[in-house]
Design goal:
The structure holds two protein chains of two kinds.
Chain A (H helix, E strand, L loop, with lengths): L12 H11 L6 H27 L14 H13 L1 H12 L5 H24 L7 H7 L5 H21 L2 H9 L7 H10 L7 H34 L11 H27 L8 H32 L2 H11 L4 H19 L7 H28 L19 H24 L5 H13 L4
Chain B lengths: L1 H18 L7 H4 L9 H14 L1 H4 L20 H4 L3 H10 L13 H12 L21 E10 L4 E10 L2 E4 L4 E7 L4 E9 L5 E5 L12 E7 L2 H4 L3 E6 L25 H36 L1
Antiparallel strand pairs in B: 1-2, 2-3, 2-6, 4-5, 4-7, 7-8
Helix pairs in contact in B: 3-7, 6-7
Chain lengths: 448, 301
């Protein structure tokens, strides 16, 4: 990112056409109302499910003494993982200087904010006595990775929100006079949020400096958030969790899930908002290459994570590996590895599959597999405690998520989709000023 | 070398064979009877003792949820257990036989009889026979008493046994006395069992390296072996005669497992520093937004 902004673009005719393209879909349309209505009604059902759990306690879930971390924690890990893509795209790729990430960066940030914000709620859904949440802060011990996790998740969420908001400020100012077709309250929201933005060079300078700070700060924070999440498991001695590579293993897995999520949102934004000019085949091609790169790294970590224990077959590990490879979880395990990792890698190596629609299909597979992958990391390990299960009711022996549990999990996903929908629909989803600046710059210095 | 292993193997095999054999109870022990009649209160006391000492292996009586051991511990309600005469049960519980632990230093004889009364409550056909009291004015005497003294110079414990015989308190000679020290789990026998001399005294040498509490205190317990003659007689006293031992509690120093006030310094520093650094920058950015806002006002004017 340049440290100076050439504000010439403000007087360029291009700005008008770009702003018109990007702002056309913004506002409350009928489609938006129907979609939000659908999400809202479904969410009500899920909230009712949560009411039952709140009333009766975790007994309405499949969780018992032995398997006490189930779908909820798997879902939490998935949320944290997916949110990490904000850091990968806007920070790492942006700082390196890849120009193609510009129109995608805001989408990545939206995903980061939405998933990180709801991740905290997912944890609360796993609490039998959620009213005791303040105890975490009153009596929490900083020796516990859970406290580290609470700390980094909050920090990451705030930084992501700022990284979404800061580059939005000039856009809000540009849009102010151009969204006459939207309701009054939305226009005044733009007015307030644009914090008196006048496009002065000084304002741009401050903005760029602030963003640069955050773009650097978010790298260690993002590494911390997912490494610490992996430590929630890896600090124990249990087979399947007792691993020294859990941090990087989780981190690379996170990039896979996040990149897939970005592709999915990109696809819907592009087709619904007719933004083919901005989210081009080139962008899908690049995202495809990115996805294949992170997937190959993740595959490499998977091989390390499963092949070594499978080679040594230490007693307790062997039971776990057996469960995954040929036992109870084999079907899910191989589906996840093949459909969510190996086949996508192979397909994405070919340019024909890096087209928008095939990318969408592949990314859906990758993302769904990523969810089940977290389930496979969290649940099977608890099936085999070191002290054998005995003298307990049969229901404690195995874990089957209940309908209520599933509904609550679906509810958290709905919340994420609602946040993404609002941010994508009511605010410019592609950075107008950065696109205009880039195109103006290109006009003047074609050799660039 | 191989020979040595072979002989070791043979020894192991023989001992395995031996341990798989019948559990023989000496006839005189098998014939013993409880000195008191079993009642609801003895059964209640027995149930409590059973739950703390035996349930982990023998399970809930009648439910057959015993722990998997070789040989398996029989369920107390089972015919195998109930076919034992009272005296045999007492002997087996007191002596034990691998893997069944010995309880004679952990439970008193009365405690064991209480457990037996509880075990018998799972047998409808059981009719109790109690011990007939040994001759009231018999040779041994009544109301036996134990006094304990510490002989500092020789590092010995001296016990003195007396009993009322023909209405006079007299020393008891030639009876067996045992000395124990109370430990965390059970009682530790000290020295050998001794017989009292003509003055009713017995001397036990006390080890110099026995750890006591932080001030060197230990609890001594003295028992008379001849329960048939005296009933259960024991005395205890607490003396500062052992090595003062201070074992710092695991939560005394700063540690990962301690409360937050005793968290390791490096962790406190690392955590605080990271949080302050990250939030310092975040707050700085928030302030910058304010600066942007102010700059906009100036431009307006």
């Amino acid at each position: 990112m340049a440290s100076e902004v050439n504000t010439d673009f403000l007087h360029n005719k291009k700005l008008d056409s770009i702003a018109a393209d990007i702002l056309r879909p913004v506002g409350i349309t009928q489609g938006f109302v129907v979609w939000m209505g659908f999400l809202g009604v479904s969410l009500l059902g899920c909230i009712y499910a949560y009411y039952i759990q709140f009333d009766k306690g975790l007994i309405v879930t499949g969780l018992r003494d032995y398997i006490s971390w189930g779908m909820y924690i798997a879902n939490f890990v998935f949320f944290v993982a997916t949110s990490l893509v904000g850091m990968l795209i806007s920070s790492i790729l942006g700082l390196i200087g890849f120009k193609w990430v510009k129109p995608i960066a805001r989408i990545a940030e939206i995903i980061a904010v939405a998933f990180a914000a709801i991740a905290g709620l997912v944890i609360v859904s796993d609490m039998g006595r959620p009213e005791r949440l303040p105890y975490v802060f009153m009596y929490g011990r900083i020796q516990s990775p859970i406290i580290w996790d609470v700390t980094v998740v909050t920090t990451y969420m705030v930084i992501s929100a700022l990284l979404y908001f800061l580059p939005l400020i000039p856009d809000l100012a540009i849009s102010k006079g151009r969204i006459g077709h939207t309701p009054k309250w939305l226009q005044s929201t733009y007015e307030i949020l644009s914090v008196n933005w006048q496009h002065t060079p000084q304002q741009y300078k401050i903005l760029l400096k602030a963003m640069r700070i955050l773009l650097i700060l978010i790298i260690p924070t993002a590494f911390a958030i997912h490494t610490v999440t992996s430590w929630l498991f890896a600090v124990t001695l249990r087979p399947g969790w007792d691993s020294t590579i859990f941090g990087p293993y989780f981190l690379t897995g996170a990039f896979v899930a996040g990149s897939a999520a970005v592709v999915i949102v990109m696809y819907f934004v592009r087709t619904n908002y007719k933004l083919e000019k901005y989210l081009t085949h080139h962008h899908f091609d690049m995202m495809g290459k990115l996805l294949v790169l992170v997937s190959i790294i993740y595959l490499y970590f998977n091989i390390n994570e499963y092949l070594l224990p499978a080679f040594k077959m230490k007693t307790a590990e062997a039971v776990h590996i057996h469960d995954l490879f040929v036992g109870e979880y084999a079907f899910m395990f191989w589906c996840v590895q093949l459909l969510g990792l190996i086949i996508p890698i192979i397909l994405l190596l070919f340019k024909v599959f890096r087209k928008p629609f095939s990318m969408l299909v592949i990314s859906i597979f990758v993302l769904v597999a990523a969810w089940f992958k977290r389930y496979l990391i969290v649940v099977p390990t608890q099936d085999h405690p070191f002290l054998p299960k005995q003298f307990v009711p049969d229901a404690w022996m195995v874990y089957h998520p209940t309908v209520i549990e599933t509904a609550i999990t679906v509810g958290t996903l709905l919340l994420v989709i609602i946040i993404i929908t609002i941010l994508v629909k009511l605010f410019p989803v592609i950075p107008i000023w950065e696109m205009a600046e880039e195109q103006t710059g290109n006009d003047e210095s074609p050799q660039d | 070398m191989i020979k040595r292993y072979l002989s070791l193997l043979i020894i192991v095999l023989i001992s395995l064979h031996l341990s798989a054999q019948e559990w023989v109870v000496p006839a005189e022990n098998g014939a013993r009877l409880s000195p008191f009649a079993f009642s609801d209160s003895t059964r209640k006391a027995g149930a409590e003792l059973y739950n703390t000492n035996c349930k982990s292996c023998h399970g809930d009586p009648g439910k057959n949820n015993v722990i998997k051991l070789v040989p398996p511990p029989p369920d107390p309600a089972s015919a195998k257990m109930q076919s034992n005469p009272d005296g045999a049960l007492h002997f087996k519980i007191a002596e034990g036989k691998t893997p069944m632990p010995s309880f004679k230093n952990i439970l008193s004889s009365v405690n064991i009889w209480q457990i037996i009364s509880y075990i018998r409550s799972f047998n409808d056909k059981y009719v109790q026979k109690t011990q007939t009291k040994p001759g009231g004015s018999g040779a041994a005497g009544e109301n036996a008493k134990i006094k304990i003294a510490w002989l500092k110079e020789t590092h010995q414990v001296q016990t003195f046994i007396s009993a009322t015989k023909e209405k006079v308190i007299q020393p008891v000679a030639g009876t067996e006395v045992k000395l124990f020290v109370k430990r965390y789990f059970g009682n530790l026998p000290i020295d050998e069992a001794r017989n009292t001399d003509a003055e009713g005294k017995a001397l036990f040498s006390f080890p110099k390296d026995l750890p006591g509490d932080s001030a060197g205190f230990v609890q001594l317990i003295v028992k008379l072996s001849d329960e048939a003659a005296f009933g259960e007689v024991k005395a205890d006293t607490t003396l500062a005669i052992a090595l003062p031992t201070y074992r710092p509690p695991l939560n005394e120093k700063r540690a990962m497992w301690n409360v937050v006030q005793k968290a390791p310094i490096w962790l406190l520093l690392a955590y605080t520093f990271s949080v302050l650094a990250a939030w310092g920058f975040i707050i700085y950015v928030f302030l910058q937004i304010r600066v942007i806002y102010r700059a906009g006002i100036r431009k307006d004017q």
